[in-house]
Structure formats: structure tokens, C-alpha cells
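note to self: dont lose this again. the chain is below, predicted strucutre after it. 1033 aa total, dont forget to put it in the shared folder this time
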Amino acid sequence: MNGGNTTSGSASQCEFLIALDRFKTTSGLTQREEAEFRMTSLGDLQSCIRTIQQDQESKKRLMYMKRLDPFLQTMEQYGKVLDVFVNTSEVVAFIWGPMKFILLIARTFSDALHSVLDAYQDIGEQLPLLRGYQQFCVSNAHMKTVLVLIYQDILEFHREAIKHFKQRLWMQLFQATWRGFTAKIQHLKDNLRRHKQLIESHATVVQFEEIQKLRENARCEFDTHQRAETERRRLRVIQWLAPCSVESLQNQHKETRSICKDSGRWMIDDPRFQKWFSPNGCLSPLLWINGIPGAGKTILASVIVDEACSVARTSTTFFYCKHGDPSRSTFIDIAKSLLAQLLTQNSHLLQLLYEKASISGEIELTSKVIAKELLRTALHSSGTTYVILDGLDECDRDNRKEVSAWFQSIVDELPSKDIGAIRCLFISQDDGVARKDLGAMPTIRIMPSDNKSDLASFATFWCEHIEEKFGKRQDLANIIHARAQGMFLFAKLLAEYLFNLPSRAFLLEELEPSKLPVKLDDCYSRILHRITENKNSKLTDEIWKVLGWVACAPRPLRWREIQAVVSLDIENQDVNYGRQFLDSPKDLFASLVELQPDGTVELIHGTARDYLIRSDIVAPTKTHLSLALTSVGYLGFPEIDVTRSKDDTENDFLEGRLAFYDYASACWAIHLQAGLACHDETENLVSLIETLEAFIDLHWSKAAKRLAISKTTHESLEALSQSESYEKIAQAVVWSRKQLSRSGQGPSDVEALDLWQVTSQMRTILESFHSVLAKDEKEKLQRYYGSKWFKCHRVNCFFYHEGFSTKSARDYHKERHERPYMCIVEGCHMTTFGCVTENALKTHLFEYHGIDFLGDTDFPEPKRPAASSSKHEASYRCKLCPKKFTRAFNLRSHLRTHSDEKPFSCSTCEERFTRQSDCNRHEKGHGERKFKCSGPLDDGTSWGCSAAFGRADKLASHLRSKTGQQCIRPLIMQELQNGRQPGDEGGLLDLDADALLSAGNGLPTFAEFLQLCGLNKSMIEPAKLSDNLNGSS
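---
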């Protein structure tokens, strides 16, 4: 070899080694795995394949392992050509090693092995046979580049496949994740097909460069498409999960604690906490941190969250529970948020969650069964995961018990070797319920001495602000610190109360020891006294009323909604914004409330609500009755009328007269039933009945369908039984509660009331403003209605009041309500349009994509510790024979054997098959049939029957048959007459069989030919040949 070739060979070797190094660094291989790959030969791989086949045979689960032949045969020839360019066996070994690794893992799960065998067959069929092109590849530099590209594509397939099989719980995730991998496999097949075309056509440099451009364009297009598809699926999952934005809460808590240096560090350094937290090993995967109300537990939780997020190669999930917030108080709320967080940190979950979102039939995840199965799989498959749940005492009793029991069971399921893979931290008050649920686990109780440093920093910060306003005051920080007794909430309320005093004289008076608050209730009492001091009784009543609304509303009220309510003049059926508050929530209610970033108003702490109720400032039943009267009275306004003209409604919107409609139309029945507990107040009851009757008369639908009214509903409405319209009122309440429930189907022509029509007409007009109003007019309207004007029509949907910023987003959301069952196959039109019913989706997936799993394997269960290894009971029994099955889809397949049903037909010849996979394999045979039973003889005639086959093994099967032996008889006789034996110089054995194949003759060498036919050399001895052939005829 000359110097130029040596240089070229070195460059080629370098390119192969670069590709190999990239594979090693991106495949996540251990040192042991890398060493095993390096030492693997083709013989080792073939031995492994034989072992797998023998194992399948012993278990009577044989698969068609010859699907590997196209890949093995082409790669064997590829390896021999590579020997010219590289002087190390490692390059080829990293083809055989990964393949062996993948097969050994896949054999443990039949679906996985089927998929892997199919993938190798598909890829192998796109690879070129190189035996006849070795010299061409060696002598052309651009062909060397093609060989490198083939190597890169094979390594890329192996890298992605290895990632699938190395992930935790790969069996449970396989079906979903492999379907997500099919697009990548198709992309690699397209690459290999182009490489094959280059080699077989002896492409010139110009042709090579053109194909290279095609490859690069295809790669860019594929990458762009994959990014867009991934983002589409991620958005679909997030819409389905509709998680509470705990990240924004975390940022708020982070900002709150920023005034204290190293806040909460004492907990991080606590040895008891480190037993749970330490990244180097976990002795206690469960931990309960508790403390008195207001001890700063939530801020401490935010510190722990940040610390956990800083640990490399782990996942961190967290949740802040909140009493009275329907998105932060139940198990399903927690599960949805944790799933969204795990998805952000573990991309392998996307396909799993996307498929479940598509086939669940829910526009938003509400099923606890699905949520638990998904969360269990996600937690078990995400490596070391921290789960931090704050404020569990904010949930009701049933949800507290369910949350604590379920997460404890998840940790208990882990095998001993995985202890610490899932770590759950619960943070709550130490009440009797919590002790019952959490008392058995390791516990840290927050004592006043624990957080004294943080509290001192907090007190110093506020002392500086107070002294900046009023002047120096000795020991002010010590007073705040000492009075707090370890309660951050107490310190915050006291400090803000002192800061908001009007003068230094008032400050000095309040700091008298006899006047300083001692308990948390004292702080609340002082704040309430201060915010109502020097205010007239009417304004004081309004303040009490709003605090009651905030405490009792079934969902958080926005400040603009509160302003709309106080502007209502029910008696005169008018909306007068001259009655709205001019002060901000903080000015009106001081430290009692907080205005959230989304405009909602919330009490500062659950203890504030308890105090308001305990001190009779807020009476829940009276508050509900007041809101019921207000809502029903408002819904009787002239503006809320299905016959109202478009021009009038437009004016109503512009004047802000419809700002309370979303809340009133959704919540009137809730407040009515909750408020009737105080029906002993005769005056209010009479007023309520009268208002209800007017409301019913105005909005009753002539097409109303009467629903059954339960005994419980009758009892809750008993106070209204004296009304002449009682039956209609009861029907209206039942319809409202039905539509608010999970089973609510959205607007219906047969609803008791016509409010759904009013809603539709109003929103059509509001949406039209989006494109016609000037910027300043839009901003004015946003003060009344917010910025999201495109809303869902279903009253039980979060987006009924939340809305969307664009029409397209709302329309997509609406379509999911109406056609919630989505196809999971990329590129299918039904991923956009969806199906109306689950059965329609099942039929679509089965008939168009050959997927038959919905409803049968609802969700793969992670393996759990079991007492025995007994097989699953076969619970699906055939009605026509004694056979039983463990899977429903197996029973369906079996039933076809009784009916001879063959639902799958070949698109070319219409031959029918029982299984989709058999039909697919058959259809491949209609492609290019390059293996032919035919060839020329010396006398100008031909031998064979001219039958063509799509695969070499099918031709071999034909030639082993009696018919096939007759086909080859003329060829064998000719060879014997010419005095040539298989293997003689100049015989057929010396012909370039691969060149013949590529030319279309479809023949192997003569010796291989006989071997494929099941013959041997002795059979063509003249005497035996005549006997054999005559006998076969």
C-alpha cells in the first residue's frame, strides 16, 4: 500500500474511532459493559442467539429468530471490509457487543424481543451486501465516508435502544417508549437505504455529494420535526395534568425568606434530617417534620426543596397544600403536580404520559386510579427522588389519610437494595390526626430553640424598617423575637402591625408590656381592631363581609370579582362601581390577607380563618346564605337575559356589569345548599324564596328534562318547601350540581335553566372585542374581566373562569372535551381530531395501526415483592372450548380460531390473515422479489420454475422441496456433464454470488446453493444422483 493510501487509511480509522468514542460517552455504559462489548465477537453473538432460541424452545415460546439474519449477514461482510481501514477489532466488536446486550435483556419480555427482532430485520434489509463491492469501497475515498456513516447509524440505533433497556422499570415503560422510538428507527432506515443506493449504483463523487446533502437535509428536518412533536406532546400532557403552579409558590417563599441569611440551615445540618436526606445513603426514607401553627414550616419546606434540587442526578418533587383552594387540597391535586415535575426532570416519561393522556378520555386527569398508577411508575422509574409535601393538615381528613398511606406504601414496596430511591417528607402540625397517620415514622419536632437564629434575623430586619419610620427604639428586635416564641407567623403579624401604626406615639403605646399580644389570636384581634378603627359601621360591615367571602368561597376569589360584588345594588338591580373599594387589599385588610400574582385574594394562614370563625366575625352558613342571595339576585338582573340585544350586552361588558357573572352562574347552588342551615332567620328565608322564584321564572327552560331528586337533596332544600316553585328550584339545583360534578357533560338543551345560552351569547360578544377594540379600551376591559377572554363552556372546568389568551387554545381545549380519545401514533390525523368514544379509538388503533392493548393491559404494574412466584390466574375463559387465558387480547385472538375470522387482508393480493403482524410480513413479500428460482444453462435454455421470493430463506425452503429439487436438476446435470464438482476451479463456487444477487439473478454460490437446499456433496455422485432425482420424480 502506498503512502497516500496509508494516510487515507489512517484518516478513515480515525473517523471510525471518533464515532466509537462518541458512542461510548453518550450511551451511559459502565466500565464492565464497555469491556464486555470490546471482547464480543460474531461467534459470541451467534452462541448467544442459539441460547436464546433454545431457551424459547424449552418454554414453548419460539419466535422467528431468523429475522436477525439480514443484519448479521450484511454486518459480517461489513466487518471484513472494515478490516482494510482499521487495524483494531474493537470497531466491529462494538456492533456485536451492543446487539448481544440488547438481545439478552429483551428476551425476558416477549413484546420487547418481538420489537427488537423486527427492528433488526428492517435495518438489515436496508444494509448493502458488501462482498462484491470491497475493491470499489477501498479505491474510492467517498465510499469510505459512506462506510463511516453506516457505522454511525448502527451505533446510533444501539445507543438509543440501550437507553430504553437500561432505564428503571423498562418493561412497564417499554410499549410506550418503543413506540416513541419508531420515528428514529425509520429515520435511520432512510439513511441506510441511501447508503445502500450509493454503493450498489457505484455512485460518483457528484452523486455522493448530492446524497450527502439529502442526508443532512433529512437530519435537520427530522430534528426540527422531533422537537416540535416533543413540545406538542409535552403541552398536551401539561394540559391534561393541569397542575397547580407550585414553582411560583416556591419562588414566593424563597423571596419571603431572603431577608434572613441562611434561613433554615439548622434543619439541613440536623443529623436526624441527614438520615433522610443524605445523597450518600438513606437510613430513613420516611420523615415527618411537625410544629405549632405559624412556626415557619412552609418556609422551612422551601429551604429543603432548594437543597434537594441542588443534589445532582436526583429528582425533586414538592407540593404546598392549602385549605379551601380546590387545586391544592386533594390527593389528585398532589399527584398531578408531582407528575408534571417528574416529567420536567425525566424525559423518558413523556411518551408514557402522552399516551395515557390521549386514551384516558379525560380532558383533565381526575381518575385516582390512573393518577396512582402513573405516579407509582414515574416514581419507581426516576432514580433517587425526593418527595416533599407541606401543609398536609390543610387537607380534609379523607385526603390526609389517603396521601399519607399511599406514599408510605410506595416506599414500603421498594426492595431492600433500593431503600432510599424514593424519600418522602411530610410537614404538618402535630395534631391527633397527623399523629395517627404519621406517628410511626421518624419525626422531627420544631422547637423554639431550633429556629431562634432565623427568627432573630427576621426580627432584626423588621426592627430596622420600623426604626427607619419611627426612630430608634431600644430592644425592639428582642421584643418581637421574645414574643414570637418560635412562631414566624406571630413575628410577621406583630412586626407588620407595628410598622403600619400611624405615629411614634401609637408605637410606644402598643409596646407597653401590658398591651403587647401574647398569643396568635391576640395578634389577629389587634389587626382587626386597627383595620376597623375610625371607620364607619357601613365600611366595617363591608370589611367583615369580604373576609367572610374570602374564607368561605369554594374557589379563591379574584380582587376584581370582589370589587364587582361590592358594586352590586341588588335592590335596584344596578351595578355601581362608585361603590367599589379605593384602597388595595393590603390597605383594607393589612396582614390578614395576601394578594396572589394571579389576582386572587387569600387569608394569610389557616389560623386566620379559624380565628374569624371562632370569634364569630365570620359565620359560614350566614356567609353562604348572603352569597346565595347575592348570586341569585344578580342572575335576575336585566343584563342576564337570553333575549337581551347584542348592542345592550356590548354596553354591559364595556361598563363592567358582567364581571361577577362567571362566579355567580357557577356557584349559586353551592352557596344555596350550604346557606340553608341558617333558615331559622325568617326574614332572610322569605327574601331568599322570593328571589329564587323570580330567578327561576326568568331562566326556566321550557325544554327542561326532569332529573331524579335524592332524599339528601330534598332534606338540604327542606326550608324552601313552602315555595310554590319548589319543584323547579330543586330541579335547578340538581342540574347545577350535576353539571358541576365530574360527570357533567357541558351545556345541554334539556337543562332546567337557560343560563348556558346566556353564557354562550355573552362570551361570543366578549371574544369579538379581542380583535376590534383599541389597546386602551382592552386594558379598561381587562380590569373587569382579566386578560383571558376565551373560556371553556363547561361549568365544571377550571377554564370556565380561568380562560385562555387565544381562541385557538380554547378551541383545542374544547375539542378535547368533545373528542377526548386521541390516537397515540405520530403522524396520524386522529392525534389532532380524536375520537368521541373509547371503543371508537380502540377500533381505530386496531384497524389502522395494529395496536390492540387498550382496556386489556390498562397499565403495566411495577414489580412488587411477592410471597411466591406462582403464575397469574387465567381468568379469561373461552365459551367454546376449555381453554383459559390471563389476558383478554389473547382470548380475542383465540376466539378467531373458532370463527376462522381473518380481519387483516393484504392490500396487494387480498389474502387474509388472523394477525396484523402476519399480514405485514406477507405484504413485505410483494416488494422487490430479487431471489429467483431461475438461471441460464450452456445450451441457451434456463433451469428453474422462475418463482420469485422476497427473502433468501424462502428461496431456500422452495429449493429443499420436491418441486425445488426438480427445478435444480438441469443445473446439477450440466455441472456433472462438464466434469465439474462443487469447489472445482472455474466452477460455480468461484462466481461472485453477491454480484449475481445485486444484478438480479438471485443465486448464491453452488456449494451454498446445495447447502441451502439441504443437500451435500455425496448426493451428486453420478450413481446416487440418478437414484435421488428419479425417485423424487
